[in-house]
Here is the input.
Amino acid sequence: MVYAIRELYRIKTEPTIAFDALQEDEKCCGCFNYTDWRDSLFTNGNDSIVPDSCCKEPQRHCGENFNEKNIYHKGCYWVFLKVIRDKLYYVAAIAVPAIIFKVLGMLCVLLLIFRMEQTAEKVPLSTGIRI
Here is the structure.
């Protein structure tokens, strides 16, 4: 996440769109706080620039020469982890029953194989060959 802030923001489109959406939706700025943007290629060493998505009321160029009262201070790292964790509950709710269903299916197949072997042992082989 820090790498994306420092190296990819405004250089590549996908990380930029993702970060802007995360910061606007979750009301956060940077990875740990808004000062993470100071070391990014986006700011070119200017400490008074953050993305417009960090602004409490986003407007064009509101992140330039910002007032600290007008931007989010909370970082996005823990918010991002919470979003991922919440989504994982849905994945687990689907995956666990699917795994149980597969295991039960394998047990049924093993039971059928075992019964077929037992039945094959009881059936006598014919003594003569008929053509």
